[in-house]
Amino acid sequence: MALFPPLDMNPEDVRAALAPLRNDFSVAVYTAENAFAVGAIIRVAHSFLAREIILIGSSPHYEKASMGMEKYETITRVQDDDAFLQHVAGRPVWALEKDRARASLYGITAFPKNVVLLFGSERFGIPAPMLERADEVLGIPIYGVNHSLPLAVASGIVMSEWARRHYVDKTF
């Protein structure tokens, strides 16, 4: 259930209030060149109370697209693959890359605890060396002539599937 906007609280107090409600997954975005998409992902990650949003590389994000939610989120920026892997060491990394998928999002039995969901750029996806280092590579089935989904939509589908599996007994 969505919380009422904390209009009378400063962002640090809101972050502290949300901390115990955070979920055990993080979202990572690999050099997404679409600043609007990254802002939208921040907004979606906030809606699902992701633990952390990791931005790999120096691509900017468009704060208006996050509708102000960036001020309530933990956003970590790392410069490259090695810094990312060091930052998430010990946590499973599940990449989303349709063309190199090992499994369907809907065919997996469960998400591991503390999973980091890794998304690539809309144009280039996730580089092969990073996919090889991922613990799992998932695809989202699509059926039209379009070859891919917008990055923000794909991330929203995956976070929604994570939530559906974790909150089966709760209503919205």
TrEMBL record:
Domain tRNA/rRNA methyltransferase SpoU type: 26-159
SUPFAM superfamilies: alpha/beta knot
InterPro entries: Alpha/beta_knot_MTases, rRNA_MeTrfase_TrmH, SpoU_MeTrfase, tRNA_m1G_MTases_N
Record Pfam families: SpoU_methylase
Gene Ontology biological process: methylation; RNA processing
KW Methyltransferase (keyword) present: yes
GO cellular component terms, semicolon-separated: cytosol
Source organism superkingdom: Bacteria
GO molecular-function terms, A-Z: RNA binding; RNA methyltransferase activity
Assigned keywords, A-Z: Methyltransferase, Transferase
Protein name: Putative RNA METHYLTRANSFERASE
Organism: Labilithrix luteola
